[in-house]
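Hey,
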Amino acid sequence: MQIKTVKEFVTEESAKEGCADRYEDDGLTTIDNVDDAINFLKDNGAIEASSSRFFFGGVWYTSESQPDVYTGEYESSSFFLIGFTEKQERTIFKYMTRRF
């Protein structure tokens, strides 16, 4: 099981066009179990599922955009689950979308 991280960078100009300025593949992280996946997502700032109401296979998670005070860009990350069973993905989804 792995989690692929992709960073998205948005500038003022690209935001006006409604798109990201660029994306960067931040690589794959090997995960041993569902608890490790949940901890990885939480530790890396994942706050939102691509579907907040209904589970579907292939759901991904995103972090909140953070500004870079030096460049003016906003950076966020998306996290994609690779090699997880549907049951494992559903367990992660239930945890990540629960209301505290």
